[in-house]
Design brief:
Number of helices of chain B: 9
Number of strands of chain A: 5
Radius of gyration of chain A: 34 Å
Number of strands of chain B: 0
Helix content of chain A: 40-55%
Low-confidence stretches of chain A: 230-253
Order of helices and strands of chain A: HHHEEEHHHEHEHHHHH
Helix content of chain B: over 70%
Shape of chain B: globular
Structural class of chain B: mainly alpha
Largest sheet of chain A: 5 strands, mixed
Shape of chain A: rod-shaped
CATH class of the largest domain in chain B: Mainly Alpha
CATH architecture of the largest domain in chain B: Orthogonal Bundle
Strand order of the largest sheet of chain A: 3-2-1-4-5
Distance between the termini of chain A: 103 Å
Strand content of chain B: under 5%
Mean pLDDT of chain B: 82
Number of helices of chain A: 12
Low-confidence stretches of chain B: 83-94
Oligomer: heterodimer
Order of helices and strands of chain B: HHHHHHHHH
Number of domains of chain B: 2
Structural class of chain A: alpha+beta
Strand content of chain A: 5-15%
């Protein structure tokens, strides 16, 4: 049996033409083959390029701010917030603002946590106890994120007196920054100029928001009832109007 | 990567082995041609360093079996029958033993290769088990079953145990 099987298989031979054709085809295929090291190099470069693109896209998504939050009392500073509601940069616009942001360390916190930390900080508490006014402005496009952030900030500041939250389109930031003012303060400065009050930018920079509001209120007799900033939340408009020294009261319920 | 000379030498040396395994699995020339190319291109580009001729031969056998199985598993193959397959059956050159070859080919696929490796290539059951990735007892079972089937098929044809 074993012999028969052996002889039977032994009689099977590869066709010579097939062997020759295989040689030609294999050598042809092999001649176009690049060494493995080269392929590995190409693979490595491709991977590196992909990683670079991913890293660049990721950084762009993370570090490009989509909303600016201007915080003004006398310390005046801005938080740049990315699309994930994280604070990616903090910029101060006067010495008090600089000292405050150095003390608080709020970079890369979520916007909610950052505002909460600011509002609950001792430095801010001192200003609020002195009846100063804290204005928190959300500057950006009128979209879901600004709406969400405004709502979060509103919930953070809900129990704080003399605090305003508002939304405004981010259209004049370049002018504001050129003048060395935060967006919130520039907004107040515009209001002063609209009323014909001749105030120097340098003066405005060092004025507290309460002083600015008092100045506006003095000249804005006709519209004394509407001295709450435009675009403020309805709650603010309802509760923060009219009184020169208490116009900042906000969200009292 | 193997040199041209190594590739040519391997084709000369193992063409018959590859042909025999192809006959056990495939039934037409075109498929055999594909398997030849697949096996020897792989040999040229991706074969490991062989420590002996036996090692090299075992690698060729393993790769050929896998290539045949891959081809049979492909959707096209599993859903079609070639014209050649219909009209042509591989035949043994020596008429006297064509019945033996036919008997081997009539075995279930998993038995055929075991018979070939055991009776023709001279591997032990243990070596066949390692080569096919099967338990040695499975190989023994397949060999015994193959013997029984072939005995029945070749009864009256001078079958010797």
């Amino acid at each position: 049996m074993k012999n028969k099987i052996r002889i039977a298989f032994d009689s099977i031979k590869a066709d010579k033409n097939l062997a020759e054709k295989t040689k030609q085809n294999v050598l042809k295929a092999v001649s176009g083959y690049k060494p493995k090291a080269m392929n590995a190099l190409r693979f490595g470069v491709s991977c590196a390029a992909c990683l670079l693109i991913l890293a660049a896209t990721g950084s762009w998504l993370f570090f490009v701010p989509t909303v600016c939050i201007s915080i003004d009392i006398n310390p005046s500073f801005e938080l740049s917030v990315n699309r994930f509601d994280k604070v990616v940069s903090v910029e101060s616009y006067n010495e008090d603002g600089k000292a405050l942001i150095e003390a608080l360390d709020i970079k890369y916190l979520s916007c909610y946590d950052a505002i909460d930390k600011i509002v609950k900080s001792e430095e801010i508490a001192v200003f609020l106890e002195d009846n100063d006014t804290l204005e928190i402005g959300v500057f950006g496009s009128d979209n879901a994120q600004t709406e969400r952030l405004l709502s979060q900030i509103n919930s953070c500041t809900g129990k704080c007196d003399n605090t305003y939250c508002y939304f405004d389109e981010d259209t004049k930031s370049e002018v504001a920054h050129k003048l060395g003012l935060s967006k919130g303060k520039y907004r107040a400065y515009e209001k002063l100029t609209e009323l014909g009050i001749d105030v120097d930018v340098m003066q405005i920079r060092d004025m507290s928001m309460r002083e600015i509001r008092e100045l506006i209120a003095e000249f804005d007799d006709a519209d004394n009832k509407n001295d709450c900033p435009e675009n403020t939340l309805p709650a603010c408009k309802e509760s923060g109007t009219g009184k020169r020294h208490n116009y900042g009261k906000h969200n009292e319920e | 990567m193997r040199s041209e000379q190594e590739v040519i030498s391997a084709i000369d040396k193992y063409a018959d082995t590859v042909q025999r395994i192809c006959i056990l699995h495939l039934k037409n020339y075109a498929d055999t041609e594909d398997i030849f190319q697949t096996v020897f291109i792989k040999y040229a580009l991706k074969s490991p360093e062989f420590i002996s001729d036996d090692h090299e031969k075992a690698w060729i056998i393993r790769v050929t079996i896998n290539a045949c199985k891959d081809l049979l598993k492909s959707f096209f193959k599993s859903h079609t029958t070639s014209f050649e397959e219909v009209v042509e059956e591989p035949v043994c050159e020596q008429e006297d033993y064509s019945d033996v070859l036919s008997a081997v080919q009539s075995l279930p696929e998993k038995y055929r290769i075991v018979v070939y490796l055991y009776y023709y290539e001279g591997y032990t059951a243990l070596e066949i088990g390692k080569l096919l990735g099967k338990n040695v007892n499975t190989i023994y079972t397949r060999l015994n079953r193959s013997k029984q089937i072939m005995k029945e098929k070749l009864r009256g044809d001078g079958y010797e145990k």
